[in-house]
Fold these 2 entries.
Entry 1:
Amino acid sequence: MIEKVINYSLKNRRPIDIIYMKGMEITRRRIKVYKIEKDLIKAIDIDKGVIRSFKKEFILSAANTSHFNHSYVKTEISKHKIINNLQ
């Protein structure tokens, strides 16, 4: 399913939302894919206005921007940070 959403962004030049794990941090990113290489997604990070590369294996989920529940993600990221701080 993730691959399908990524290809949708590339083909239609539309933004998508991803949940990405970078080390022990989980973040939400709004991106527009412009190139897919073997294990790498090259995209514009819309919120930061910069070009980024994302390893496919660290993309935990991907969704069309219009269908994404941002409040749920913020809650889950906050829970993850709290749990990591307790360890």
Entry 2:
Amino acid sequence: MQAKGVQPKVTIIIKALNEERRIAACLQAAVSEAQSVQGEVLLVDSLSTDRTVEIAQGFPIRIVQFLHVGDRNCGSAVQLGFQYTQAPYLYVLDADMILQPGFLATALSHLCADSGLAGVAGKLLDSRLLTVYDQRRAEKAVALTVPIEVGELGGGGLYRREAIDQVGYLGNRWLRAYEEAELGMRLRAAGWRLLRLPTPAVMHEGHFETSVAMLARLWRNGRATAAGVLVRGALGKPWFVRALRSQAHALAVPAMHISSALIGWLLLLDNGSWLAGYAAVWLGWFVLLCARKRSLGGGSWTLLLWHYSAITLLLGLFIPLRDPLLPIAARELVYENLDHAIQQRDSADEPTEDRSHTVGE
């Protein structure tokens, strides 16, 4: 924690909700990295009901909390952290991630050397690969061998506050997901660039669920509809085309249905059933997907995921838009006897039941 009156150079913003099992390891690494770059750690707690805050109070950090449960989600947690700091550089981190030693200094050196960079990220390494998404991310991490410019810093990264101030806000408080993608779109539309380094940045524990269970969870907590909110919010904005491209797989579904119906009707105009022609064309699409994925399961999963995405995109388009610049009601926790809290830190690290996979993690 910075001394009173000293402006930190970097603020590490950590999003947490019911992370008692993992918060100590996350904070220990974050505090160490912050100290190496004249920084601070700011924990954004989404009104946890477990011992997350109690454990966090054993570390030299700042803690802010939402006042209202209804305000918490991924985008608002990021924006709330932004409200509570004036540091010139901001690192966004999830509580199930552990910052790797030295990465913060490396990312900071790139931002200081290139005034056109708005943000820098590195490799996100997963320790558990149960979902298709985790597996794909792991494949991308292995393939990354040189620095590349990217459209977004998924998995967190270090941002230049000057760039964030120019585009208005760090996280759209109404986005339950895609907050990093939307930020990348706004930054690139304003002329800024984003860089991903082939350097390990964080270790991510991964999800304790299958791909199907993950889709069910995202449906229940409403995060699945964020794609529609993203596209609707981009309407009329310079990044609208980028928003549409990000949902190309979902937009492909209605296009495939319309083309299949048209082709089926043309092929069987004089004889046969239109429905049979329509089904035959869709069988062709399915065979192509299986060939591309090199497996029947891969093709089936892709087809399911595309339809899921199309439905949730449509539902999200009907969610009313609200101003992302509206301030978020919150409070900063002030706790005394910090030395005593630090002495209790080690006893707070015992494993407990994992209840972290909820909205706002």
